[in-house]
Amino acid sequence: MFHGDNGCRLVSMKTQIHTQLGAPPHDGSYDNEALSCSTIDITAPNSGEPHGGLRGSNEFILSDSGKKVTGDDQTGQLNMWLQRKARSAFSEKMIKKRLPILRWLPQYNSTDAIGDLVAGITVGLTVIPQALAYAGIAGLPAAYGLYGSFLGCIVYIVFGSCKDVPMGPTAIASLLTFQTAGGSVGKAILLCFLSGVVELLMGLLGLGFLVDFVSGPVSSGFTSAVSLIIVTSQVKDVLGITAKGTTFIEIWRNIFNDIHNVQVWDTFLGLTCIAVLLIMRIIAGLKVGPADDELKSKNHRIINKLMWLVGTSRNAILVVVCGAIGYSFQSSAVAPFKLIGDIPPGLPSLKAPPFSLTANETMSGTEESFMEMVSSLGSGLIVVPLIALMENIAICKAFCKSNGKPVDATQELIAIGLANIANSFVQGFPGTGSLSRSAVNNASGVRTPLGNIYTMALVVLSLLFFTPYFSYIPKASLAAVIIAAVVFMVEVKVVKPMWRTKKSDLIPGLGTFIACLALPLEMGILFGVGLNVVFILYHAARPKISVERLTSPGGAEYLIITPDRCLIFPSVDYVRNLVTKQSIRQSLPVVIDCSHVYGADFTAATVIDSITQDFARRDQPLFFYNLKPSVCAIFEGLSPADFVVYYREEHLDDLLKQRAYKPKEVISA
């Protein structure tokens, strides 16, 4: 029976099975009748049970009375889950997963050592000039860039999962540090510590998936905008003028206000250094000899390796040459270039990050407590860790896809979190993996994360012995290093493929790009993510719905309406209006094919209840085909009248007969 005394009741999957196969098993499971319609033979050999013994889950189904049937006691299940988690947390597999060094160190050999040595030294020659330059982007003295470039490397060796990641300052992290800490040394160090704590907690809680909310177009727009802001922030040092600001527009306004103070020698040196760096970058990619590597002679290989090494070490070579030029003017009363100034010699002292600031340490001249410092850092405490993770994951994806290894975002969060916490104890500012240095690392043949130890050694040696000479480096040369590096981060090349694949993706990408240029970066990235969420919600609110007029096996015409996704509150009114419009226009029995409806909510249940009442008043049959039991339970929660579900196409004619449906004659005027 489909009808009861108080109207039509639910025809569940189990009702159909009971009619044909008898009473249900005592465990509450059911045979999946939908499998009978499949064209694939999945019957297990030597099995006398229907469908090869496949049965539906008894974890969450409906009984004949409409009550939920549960399997095991919930408390027992919770205890079992906790026991499984406890066992897995201390298993050998999990320990090696959380301490990746235990996986590769036992197999470490001489070949790995040579590869790591070459790569580590090459990256070290790159990181020293970059660290000095990135400190300027963060609004800090040059020494703090070096302080954040060595201790984190050791931590990443133990906890890092990607061999190509060199831990240290990056252009994006430096700019975010400047916008968050405002050039305050104490706040920058505290930001490093708190960012590390946030990253570590996110890793322990498994929140690495949050980076998935930043789509490719939003990431491209953000990276491109940051690149232009960084280039803009360095124009003042190339021109030898003073121009402060945190946003793209503000910096350019101040540059034009001070343009009359341009220094000729700084400008000449800066432009010359940019040109030299770009030429040396081209040299690094040049090859001599035959195109086939096997046909190249030994001399060809030596020349190619030398050109690559010179091109890769271009930053270090340029800084050394420019430092020598600056040193040559030490006897002059006034140097023709602006220099970066004195750098304290030796390693930084090991101490806890500042949790309060004295009046002499603040820009306002008043003391600041820990809570006041945290309040002033604001949203940077969330944005800096998320962007650091985004940078690091981008590196891992770029260099791990060649060997097919999955990226463990949780482990990377733990690694960079602990590295930043360690860096804060040696007065470093927030850092993460650098894409440019990772490319150098990979091209140099790095084999394991142990390459970081040689990079660290070079940074430590430079702090111990070479800091007196760093003070002679012209600011224009460091600005040229930054400009020549980040200008290639502007992702113009993604626009064309994005246009060819899905033009609407350009909107969040372009919106993020403009917002990051006009607003502070944290607001720009939030705007981009919000714009992306709006697009997602729009697609959820406007599902694609196909409408077809078909004939049943018994010859009855009916209308089948098929939504392509779940029914949730943004989309249900749209679906209801379309179903109502098409049903009134066609005046036929309506079947809603729910094969693609994998979820629903309370709002959807209320709308389904309303639709069934509308159809009942019009005496027009409405059926739901292939509705999943979990969704069926949601709809049945409101006890809708005339709510009929079936799972086999041949049942439609039986349902129409039981409804005593007769096609209405349409009289045309």
UniProtKB/TrEMBL annotation:
Database matches in SUPFAM superfamilies: SpoIIaa-like
Pfam families linked to this entry: STAS (PF01740), Sulfate_transp (PF00916)
Subcellular location(s) of the protein: Membrane
GO terms for biological process, alphabetical: transmembrane transport
Domain STAS, first and last residues per copy: 559-641
One GO CC term on file: membrane
Keyword Transmembrane: yes
Predominant subcellular localization, coarse grouping: membrane
Membrane topology of this protein: Multi-pass membrane protein
Keyword entries, A-Z: Membrane, Transmembrane, Transmembrane helix
Transmembrane segments: 113-135, 141-159, 188-211, 268-286, 306-329, 373-395, 453-470, 476-495, 507-538
Domain SLC26A/SulP transporter: 115-507
Taxonomic superkingdom: Eukaryota
CDD domains, sorted: STAS_SulP_like_sulfate_transporter (cd07042)
Name used for this protein in its record: STAS domain-containing protein
